[in-house]
Amino acid sequence: MEKDILLKITGLHAGIEGKEILGGIDLEIRKGEIHAVMGPNGAGKSTLSAVLAGKPQYNVTAGSIEFLGRDLLAMSPEERAWAGIFLSFQYPIEIPGVSITAFMKAALNAKRKALGEEEMKSADFLKLMKEKMAFVKMRPEFSKREVNVGFSGGEKKRNEIFQMAMLDPVLSILDETDSGLDVDALKIVADGVNSLRSPEKSSIIITHYQKLLEYVVPDVVHVLKAGKIVRTGGREIIDIIETQGFDSF
Amino acid sequence: MAGHYLDIAPVSEGAEVAAGGKRLHKVLVIREDCKQDIRVIAEGGSSTDITLVIMPGCSADISLDLDFTGEGAGARIAGLYICAGDERVKVSTTLRHRMPGCTSDQLFTGIAGGESRIAFAGTIIVAPDAQKTEAYQQSRNLLLSRDAKVDTEPQLEIYADDVKCSHGATVGSLNPDEQFYMRSRGIPEKEARILQMISFIAPVLEGLDDPAPMAAEIEKALRSSF
Fold first, then answer.
1. Alpha-carbon distances, residue A10 vs A59, A83, A149, B74 (angstroms)
2. If both were cysteines, with which of A34, A104, B18, B30 could B42 make a disulfide (CB 3.0 to 4.6 Å apart)?
3. Are A20 and A227 a contacting pair, CB within 8 Å?
4. Contact flag B198-A97 (C-beta cutoff 8 Å)
5. What is the CATH number of domain A2-248?
6. Distance in angstroms (rounded) separating the CA atoms of residues A163 and A133
7. What per-residue confidence (pLDDT) applies to B2?
8. Among the partner residues B189, B195, B202, nearest to A106 by beta-carbon distance
9. Mean pLDDT, rounded, for B40-69
10. Which of B161, B47, B157, B49 is nearest to B102 (CA)?
């Protein structure tokens, strides 16, 4: 049923600085599904997430992406965020001089404004911050810290999940959010994704390890290799990757 | 053997004096076109803290001259200038470390948009007797338009050997990765740029006793100028 489709990628060719990295991607995500995109380094996993979020440095040379029936490629990164797309960065960016509170307030209120809603009351905003920070086990003093400045690897990833929880996206894309995390941090990430699960919301989990997928069970698994999806299936693919690596595809 | 800057005695006429054990705190906010010379005599054991803010729309020629005439004095000098149109801003500082054990720390940040011109010249002179001097100078600039221009000229003349001195000058543009990160969270491009500019000039305001009102005035000016 067409109305169940959240994201539809058709014949997507994309790259950066004149170099093609994605050579024809077709991918369909229905509402409520969790998709895992797995693949070796250099397969184009991060390019796919960057193109979905609208990173200006990347060029789409062919194909289309529909998100809830809208032409995603015609939308700016901020319009995509307002429509409900969230990208958890593989390497979260430091923003010196901007506190997490100021950052989240700007983000949340911009979205509300775009949707024709009033700005959030300060008290409500702080309450939401507190609740979501506790959820990802970030200490309250982090709200005053500059965004990602001086954070450890694990703290940066938790901050991504915190932002995801604050913005409550329809489609969350996790770009190697699990890399470099210990088991405790991995569980926090998993809890974050699982808590957002609903019949209306979907996630794309991009990874080359199977560990996170033990905690967040995907409905569909894709293998991305050399810019193409070479296999799509169920959880059995994770086992094949675990035992035979990516060479078997 | 010292440079000509040190041959002349400190000019005391019209100078403000930072007296020993006291703090000279000056905040100079430029809201209209002007030319100003600031002279400071920093006596032994004094502390000087000067913050200069040049608002958008103002062409200004500011020179600041500071002489350390006693031992163990300190000075923090910070400035910011924001140009969005056809402003001409010139800021020159000359710090003379004549005596031992004094510390100076200078930070200037400039934002040049439109067809503006920013020129910063910072001279630090350390006299032969001024051992244990610490003198630091940073000039950081954001160039936001192709038609704007920034010149930054640090000049160090050091005649003592036991000193710590450094200077740095940068002219850059807004970081595109920061911009994309903010936009991916729903912060519109224009707002992301404003936040980046605010974060860029923020360190200059750290010397103020109460930075909030100044920060608010600058934020308002940034929003209406860019």
1. 15, 20, 38, 65
2. B18
3. yes
4. yes
5. 3.40.50.300
6. 9
7. 47
8. B195
9. 97
10. B47
pLDDT digits 0-9 by tens, B143-195: 999 999 999 999 999 999 999 999 999 999 999 999 999 999 999 999 999 99
| Residues A8-57: tens digit of each pLDDT | 999 999 999 999 999 999 999 999 999 999 999 999 999 999 999 999 99
Per-residue pLDDT band at B57 (split at 50, 70, 90): very high
Cβ atoms within 10 Å, residue B193? 18
> Chain B: which residues have CB within 8 Å of chain A?
176-178, 180-189, 191, 195-196, 198-200, 202-203
The domain ranges of chain B are 4-173
Return d(Cα B29, Cα A28) in angstroms, integer: 58
Tell me whether A95 touches chain B (CB under 8 Å): yes
DSSP per-residue letters across A211-244: THHHHS--SEEEEEETTEEEEEESTHHHHHHHHH
- Going from the C-alpha of A123 to that of each of A114, A119, A134, A136, A186, the distances in angstroms are 21, 12, 17, 20, 31
Instruction: Number of A to B CB contacts under 8 A, please give it.
Output: 75
Closest CA relative to residue B62, chosen from B42, B77, B43: B77
**Shortest distance, CA A161 to any CA of chain B (angstroms):** 12
Tokens of A106: 């700007």
User: Closest Cα to residue B224, out of B142, B113, B149?
Assistant: B113
Closest CA to A39 of A221, A223, A174, A212: A223
Give the pairing of strands A220-225 and A228-233: antiparallel
Q: Which residue of A has its CA nearest to B204?
A: A97
Residue type, A51: V
Please compute Rg for chain B using Cα positions.
18
Prediction ipTM score: 0.95
* Local confidence band at A209 (pLDDT 50, 70, 90 cut-offs): confident
Give the residue among B34, B35, B128, B120 at the shortest CA–CA distance from B77. B120
Which residue is closest to B187 within chain A, CA to CA? A107
